[in-house]
Amino acid sequence: MICADTASPLLQVAGLRKTFSDGQVDREILSGLDFTLAQSEMLVLWGPSGSGKSTLLNILAGVLAADAGSVDLLDNQGSTWSYGQDDAQATTRLRRQLIGYVFQFFNLIPTLTVAENIELTIKLAGNASAGLRTAADLREQALAKADTLGLTSLLDMFPETLSGGEQQRAALVRALAHQPRLLLADEPTGNLDASNASRVMDALTDQLAHSGCGLVVATHDPAIAEQAHRVIALPC
Amino acid sequence: MASIVAVHQIGERIALQLDASMPIHLRDAQFTASLQAAPSAVTANDYFRLRSSWRRQEVPDVTAVVPVVHGVLAVDLIEGVNQSPPVAAPVSSAQIVGLDWLQMLEAGGQHLPLTNAVGADAQMSPPALMLPGTTALDAVHPALVDAALGWVQGQKFAAGGLTFEVAGLIEGGSAPEALASVYVDIGLAQEALGLKPNQLSLIAISQNDPQAPLRDLLEKIMPGISSGLPVAQAPSLPIGWVAQGVAEQMPQISFGRSVLFNLGALGSLSLVVAWFLIYQTAVLWLRRQALVYQRLLHQGVTLGQLRLVFCCALLLVGLVAGGLGLGLGLWFAHWLLGQLASAVASEPTQGLEGAAALWDSFGAPVVVKALASAGLVSLLAALVAFGRLWQPPERASWKLGAGVAGLGLLLIFGLWRGSGLLGAFVAIAVSCVLVLLLLRPLLEALRKRAAMLPGPLVWRMGVRELAWYPMDVAIALGAMVLAVATSVGVGTMVDSFRTDFDRMLSQRLAGDVQVRGEPARVLPIVAALAPEPGVSELRQLRSGLVNIAGQPVQLSLTRLDKAGAARYGLAAAVDPDGVLVNEQLATKLGLEVGMSLRVQNRELRIASIYPGYGDTQGQLVANDDAGWQLTASRYQLQISAAAPQALVNQLQQDYPFVQVELRSSVRALALDVFDETFAITRALTYTALAVAAVGLYNALVGLSLLQQRSWRLLSVMGLALHERFGFALSRSALIFVLTSLLAVPLGIAMGWMLCHLVNPRAFGWTVPLSWSGSAVWLPLTVGAVVALVAGLLSVPMQNAGAASAGDD
Ligand SMILES: Nc1ncnc2c1ncn2[C@@H]1O[C@H](COP(=O)(O)OP(=O)(O)OP(=O)(O)O)[C@@H](O)[C@H]1O
Ligand SMILES: [Mg+2]
What we know:
The complex is a heterodimer.
Chain A: E1 5-22, E2 25-39, E3 42-46, H1 53-61, E4 68-74, E5 80-83, H2 92-97, E6 99-102, H3 114-125, H4 135-148, H5 164-176, E7 182-186, H6 194-211, E8 214-218, H7 222-227, E9 230-233
Parallel strand pairs in A: 3-8, 3-9, 6-7, 7-8
Antiparallel strand pairs in A: 1-2, 1-4, 4-5
Helix pairs in contact in A: 3-4, 3-5, 4-5, 5-6
Chain B: H1 2-20, E1 31-35, E2 42-43, H2 44-55, E3 62-79, E4 93-99, H3 101-106, E5 117-118, H4 120-123, E6 140-146, E7 156-159, E8 162-170, E9 181-185, H5 186-193, E10 199-200, E11 202-207, H6 212-221, E12 241-245, H7 251-298, H8 303-343, H9 364-390, H10 397-415, H11 420-448, H12 457-468, H13 470-508, E13 513-517, H14 519-529, E14 535-548, E15 551-558, H15 562-566, E16 578-582, H16 583-589, E17 596-599, E18 602-610, E19 619-623, E20 634-641, H17 644-654, E21 659-662, H18 663-706, H19 708-717, H20 721-763, H21 773-793, H22 800-803
Parallel strand pairs in B: 4-9, 6-8, 15-19, 16-18
Antiparallel strand pairs in B: 1-11, 1-12, 2-10, 3-4, 3-7, 3-11, 5-8, 6-9, 7-8, 13-20, 13-21, 14-15, 14-20, 16-19, 17-18
Helix pairs in contact in B: 1-7, 1-8, 1-9, 7-8, 7-9, 7-13, 7-18, 8-9, 8-18, 10-11, 11-12, 11-13, 11-20, 12-20, 13-18, 13-20, 13-21, 18-21, 20-21
The structure holds adenosine-5'-triphosphate and magnesium ion.
């Protein structure tokens, strides 16, 4: 297990509220959520279906605006990005440079090859990405990661020709390609067999250790929860 | 549907106008009879011989034989009945038509030429029996007059030294620009016109045409279509006689028909595009319903029931669309005609101004046509889409190959002259299908090579997206290609027609001043102008009918020196024994340059075959000399003068019964009429483009639906709005490139086929292909805008958060 560096919090979430209303009924999904995440820390969101795990991840990713509260993310040059109630338009740069997102499935653009999917992430991050690394560095690291995940021979193939496990490993390389500060994973192993699942989780934790980023995983899998530094249980 | 209805309404309007430009007394006659030996000279004796053999039943199927005398005369209104001053505007000349008055009375005013005489039977009394040349000068003779003159019953008028009284009015609905007609007894007409006592102008023949009802029905369904059908068989007259179609003798009518025919063909084009559109809708709809249908199937609903429900639903959509299209189409036709009326405001008498009268022709045929075609199109689309969903067609390359080979054979068949007009249209249709067939393989090939595509990633994504869903895209692209190609094809055809027409006008209108009229009226002008110092050149042209191989042919006689030959596009003068033959006659008789041709006992050599734009008859042009014995029916002068306008003014004043015009005004008017006629055609092709635009938008929105998850992922990855538009732009760019690549060659091929296959086969003359850039770039620009707008509009604007509502 990797030790989290609790001294410098990477992510600070305070008083997060989100209510969805479908016509007449208002349902409060998040009611004043507070937590922090340290560098290299892995946090698991645990809760029954419909408890708001994906909703929280979307807010952390900046694609969904909360009704109240704040999210502060520290980048590796020491500046803090504050969002939480901003709309998706305002957080485009945040998502390009600081966030890596892995879904349960459909993580790759079907009309791009695996290599192009990875390249797209690097391109979108731009030169300012992570402040220190050039695109060439990022590309080199991504290819190395792809190699360790056994993807080298599949780089020029289109996603639909890959197996589910291969797709998810490729998705992981894509999500990590720009060396994000915050990794978000929504049931990343939900579709995978045990061996693929452990390969994916290993790659994720490996990234934590080496880059100092933070990881938030939504899951129903107790095995993953066991690996976490902390588990936040969302009430139904 | 709107454009189909609009085409129908406008077509019907043009058809009415064409009918109106036919003189009233010839409307019920399909043929005229003339003597083989002397086509221009028919006498009363000839008529009696023909009539007696008809009465002896030697001429089957002919229902009437009518002698006619006609010519233009000055008329003067003498007095009004009980109003002063007379309400009618002063009329200077009218077409005097002489008919057999007694024969008409026998039939109670309902006889052949005058079936629509109003009040005639009440007022008509038999004229005193007259022998030619014995007419009492002070007698008043009955006449039926065209209601367009504005005269009333009982008014008296003078013409050709005789006095007539209006005995009845004829509601002819004649074309506004045509001379009004006055119908009198044949003997009186001969006398008034100064003809020899037994000379006739023509013998009209009415025939029992068993195909007429079918023709009328087809014409109601698609105005103009009958002009593309084979003409009625001419009656077999006794030996020595030839029959000639009345319509064939009126070039303006056949030109109009050619336009009408094209309009009709265009009308069906929008139906094809509509089919694409509905088919696509059906496919999208089915795709959304597929899961529901699957469940229903599992619960015991049969496939047949599902198909029935689906087809009924689409049929309903089609019928509603047909109804809406009907209203919109009426409005559209109204608007188009209004546009044209204002575009040619200087010439308000073109008759198209009667936009308000559109409702007149609004009837059951157009309603049935709109609803039936809408219903059929949607039903067909539903059936095909349904069939393909449950049994996706097997795609074997040998099948495609066999199909292409079959179509290639059909194309060759269509190009072969003997396949006729039908073959020409088969050739056009087959080339369209061939190009459409290419679309899917093209997209699939693109997909195969997708990994090698260079360029920015966003652009690669946009381009590949099209190749990823070849079926959806091929349909939308097909509609687009078809619409742009037709637009290019029709534009090319119109350009070619116009260039050809323009060149013909430049060649034939040689002098500054054009004079036309009856020989007796024009000849004095020649004598008067000869000594004028301001007149530098005076070209005379006379023409009349001669008989070539049993056919009446128009022979024009003029001086074929260098300038005279240039009128027919030749570089050098024609030998004295040379003759020029127009394309129509050459095709009909298989003539070639260098062959010899016998005309009136003279052996001539064919010096050239010239393109006879708009001619419907065979025509010959030869050097004029004293040896010809031609009864000229028309005389034409082309005068080059120092002060043309002054000469025109002077001639118009001195010779009121001949037509005197400046070359420039003849030319401008002719081109105006031309542009006006084809403006409709162009407007309609752009309508087809608009329909295709809707189809394309539909397809792109459909694609975006399929791509919803990709969009969400891209949004999470931080794709900015401008990059989304870049993506849409690249997609539109590919659509545009593919459309241009396929539509431009197809369009030019279509233009070529319209000029070289359809026109010669339907109307006998070839139009050389020529195009201005605008025929190509205008539709392409519209196509580009359409692709761009449809592409940009289909970009989802919502962001990932909203899209992720239900999570995977
Ligand atoms: N855009 C939205 N509009 C309305 N309701 C929404 C929206 N997004 C999510 N919800 C609702 O919010 C609740 C929480 O959804 P969420 O997807 O966050 O659950 P979850 O914890 O991820 O569930 P699961 O474990 O099944 O993935 C659900 O009841 C869902 O219906
Ligand atoms: Mg979820």
